[in-house]
Design goal:
The chain is mainly α. It is built from 6 helices and no strands. The protein is elongated, with a radius of gyration of 19 Å.
Length: about 160
């Protein structure tokens, strides 16, 4: 018995939510730079950003769970195809947490002042470069998971197993 195509309605909802979470993350990155926040406000913003990253990761794995490869137990096909995205999510999340903690720690006792040091500038640049790679890889993965080949038994999926 052949499995059905992915539920277009469910995929569309996942995709819209994923793209909204990417926009929220981009907005959090922009706002944290452009607006002079109190320490508590900045802390809340960074916590919200990390929660959005966790939600993005959960949604990506929910899409994995709906694929034929996952249901057939050949998860390594998905892991091989999406390893870069999964790794980038964790790297970006670690950099976001590190940058957020460091940024809030510097501002905590100095309301209204912003104290940059060289190490924080390096982390800031790495975080923003990693954000670009994360946005690209995550969006590409979300769109690739809409391919019908992942949701049905096919020669393509078994050819990926033999690689």
């Amino acid at each position: 018995m052949e499995m059905a195509q992915p539920d277009n309605y469910r995929y569309t909802i996942y995709l819209v939510i994923q793209l909204c979470l990417l926009m929220v993350d981009l907005l959090c990155n922009s706002i944290s730079i452009a607006v002079s926040w109190t320490s508590i406000g900045l802390l809340v913003l960074f916590v919200f950003q990390v929660l959005c990253l966790l939600a993005s990761l959960v949604l990506l794995f929910l899409q994995f769970f709906n694929t034929f490869a996952f249901k057939a137990g050949i998860l390594y096909v998905l892991l091989r195809k999406f390893a870069g995205t999964i790794l980038m999510i964790f790297v970006y999340m670690a950099l976001t947490i590190g940058y957020g903690v460091w940024n809030v720690a510097i501002r905590w006792d100095r309301e209204g002042q912003y104290g940059w040091n060289s190490a924080l500038q390096v982390v800031f640049v790495l975080h923003k470069l990693c954000a670009i790679a994360y946005y690209y890889l995550y969006k590409r993965s979300a769109l690739r998971l809409g391919d019908v080949r992942y949701y049905k038994d096919s020669t393509w999926i078994w050819s990926q197993v033999s690689k």
